[in-house]
C-alpha cells in the first residue's frame, strides 16, 4: 500500500504519539494506518507499508486487540485476516481512556486506599497520609468525571467541548453573584 506524504506523516505522527497514549511507536503507527485506510488492512499490508517484520505486526495486532481498538474482518474467498477500527473515532478514544484508567488510575487508587487505611506510625507518616488522601480524592474525582464523560453521547461531548472555557466563565460569574449577594 502506497501512502501519500500527508498520510505517511499522519501515520508516523501516530507512532510518535503511541508512547504518550500508552503503547509503543509501532503499535501507534499500526492504529494510525488502520484508521486512515478506507478498506480493512491485512497483516502483510501493515508489514509492507510500515516496513516492519510480520512478527512485529503480529505482536502489534495482539496489543491493539487487547486495547479493543481493532476488529478482524474477513473477505469472502480470501483466507487472510483483515483489520479495521473497532468503531468510530469516539469509540476508540473512549476505549483508550478506559484502558488507561484500568492500567494507571485503578492500581494507584488501590495503593492509596490501602495506605490511607493504615494507622500512621509517626508524624512523617501522618503528614504523608494527608497528602496521599488529597491525591486519592483528586484521582477519585477525575475518575468519576471521566466515567461520566464516557457515558455521554458523542453529540453531548462535542457540545461540552465547544463550551470549553465558557464553563469557567459561567462559574466565575456564579461566584461573583454569590459574593455580591452576601
TrEMBL record:
Protein family according to the UniProt entry: Belongs to the GbsR family.
Record InterPro entries: ArsR-like_HTH, HTH-GbsR_regulator, HTH_MarR-typ, MJ1563, WH-like_DNA-bd_sf, WH_DNA-bd_sf
Keywords on record: DNA-binding, Transcription, Transcription regulation
Residue ranges annotated for the HTH marR-type domain, each copy included: 22-80
Pfam families linked: MarR_2
Gene3D superfamilies the UniProt entry points to: Winged helix-like DNA-binding domain superfamily/Winged helix DNA-binding domain
UniProt superkingdom: Bacteria
Lineage: Bacteria, Pseudomonadati, Pseudomonadota, Gammaproteobacteria, Alteromonadales
Any GO MF annotation of the entry: DNA-binding transcription factor activity
Protein name: HTH-type transcriptional regulator
Amino acid at each position: 500500500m502506497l501512502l501519500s506524504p500527508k498520510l505517511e506523516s499522519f501515520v508516523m505522527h501516530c507512532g510518535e504519539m503511541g508512547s504518550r497514549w500508552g503503547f509503543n511507536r509501532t503499535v501507534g503507527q499500526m492504529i494510525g494506518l488502520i484508521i486512515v485506510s478506507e478498506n480493512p488492512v491485512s497483516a502483510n499490508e501493515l508489514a509492507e507499508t510500515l516496513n516492519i517484520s510480520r512478527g512485529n505486526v503480529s505482536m502489534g495486532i495482539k496489543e491493539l486487540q487487547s486495547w479493543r481498538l481493532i476488529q478482524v474482518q474477513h473477505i469472502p474467498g480470501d483466507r487472510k485476516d483483515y483489520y479495521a477500527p473497532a468503531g468510530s473515532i469516539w469509540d476508540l478514544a473512549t476505549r483508550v481512556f478506559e484502558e488507561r484508567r484500568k492500567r494507571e488510575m485503578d492500581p494507584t487508587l488501590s495503593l492509596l486506599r490501602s495506605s490511607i487505611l493504615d494507622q500512621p506510625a509517626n508524624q512523617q507518616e501522618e503528614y504523608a497520609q494527608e497528602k496521599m488522601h488529597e491525591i486519592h480524592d483528586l484521582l477519585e474525582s477525575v475518575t468519576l468525571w471521566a466515567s461520566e464523560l464516557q457515558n455521554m453521547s458523542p453529540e453531548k461531548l462535542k457540545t461540552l467541548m465547544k463550551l470549553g472555557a465558557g464553563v469557567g466563565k459561567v462559574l466565575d460569574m456564579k461566584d461573583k453573584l454569590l459574593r455580591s449577594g452576601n
